[in-house]
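Input record (one chain):
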Amino acid sequence: MIRYDFLSEIPLFKGLTEEQLAVLSSKLELRYYKHNEVIIKENETGDELYILNKGKVKITKCLTLTAYENKGDDREKSLNILDERNHPAFGEVAMLQNNIRSATVSAVNDCELLTLKRSVFEKLADDDARMGYIIIRNIAVNLSETLKKSSHDVIKLATAFSLVMKCE
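The corresponding structure, as predicted from the sequence alone:
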């Protein structure tokens, strides 16, 4: 059984009791990734949540739509670097459905990650509906914040584009 006291500090697990965290920690699997190894690949389906325990990961996103059409243009933009300090969780949408990954996550250095498969989460939620509700609510809050930020970013980009077009 993996016991990690820091799970209570992860926003995704905020509100869980010590007992629920103990049950959750017993279901997490430990995985290791080498420097530059891809953990999640953009545009592929996934069914696992990841928690960074040790190391750093880089999040990148394709800049062109042709990458989605398998036309070979896979230019990427680095969006963020996450490190172990706050034990960030990523891939949480996979707890809800077989979803297409929205970004690529790669190991910057050798990493240790905890994983939770959706099937294991669903069993946990069946056994403890309150735990399932709390985690799903936290995922919804996180998605809502991400959607707000994305909407704000789209407005800024549209404004910048219109200003550039006026200048031409």
